[in-house]
Design a protein that fits this description.
Blueprint (H helix, E strand, L loop, with lengths): L3 E5 L3 H13 L3 E5 L2 H9 L8 E4 L8 H10 L7 E6 L4 H9 L4 E4 L5 H13 L6
Parallel strand pairs: 1-2, 1-3, 3-4, 4-5
Helix pairs in contact: 1-5, 2-3
């Protein structure tokens, strides 16, 4: 099954890498270079909501945590699974993610793109536990 997935990362190389991996698996991918850009897309009146949002934690401007907090506060993308995809793997970061009731937390350095794809699909299908 194809899913609409939003990728948010300020690292263009990684954004393109994951976009290609997900597109090759048949998914509809939309890439954003930061939280502000994502929020603008989600706030559009005619916005088609994603099945999942994969978002980095550390980005210039608005962090992933701030972006997700805004998504929650404004009730944007209510049905979307939100997954942090970050190199920040400290317990404090994972605890912060839990407070935001995200659906997953994947550490980039510990997962190759095919594993990120598989985990994302599991989370969307409801087959994976919370972080």
């Amino acid at each position: 099954m194809a899913y609409r997935i939003y990728l948010v990362d300020d690292d263009r190389f990684l954004l393109d890498l994951y976009a290609v991996k997900f597109k090759n698996a048949g998914h509809d991918i939309h890439s954003f270079s930061g939280g502000e850009e994502l929020l603008a897309a989600l706030r559009k009146e005619d916005a088609v909501m994603p099945d999942a949002i994969l978002i980095d934690v550390i980005m210039p401007g608005m962090t992933g945590f701030e972006t997700v907090a805004t998504i929650r506060k404004e009730n944007l993308a209510k049905e979307a699974k939100i997954i942090f995809l970050s190199n920040q793997g400290q317990n404090s970061d994972i605890e912060e993610a839990k407070k935001l009731t995200v659906d997953g937390y994947i550490i980039k350095a510990a997962a190759i793109p095919s594993e990120v794809l598989a985990e994302t699909e599991r989370i969307i299908k409801g087959e994976a536990g919370h972080p």
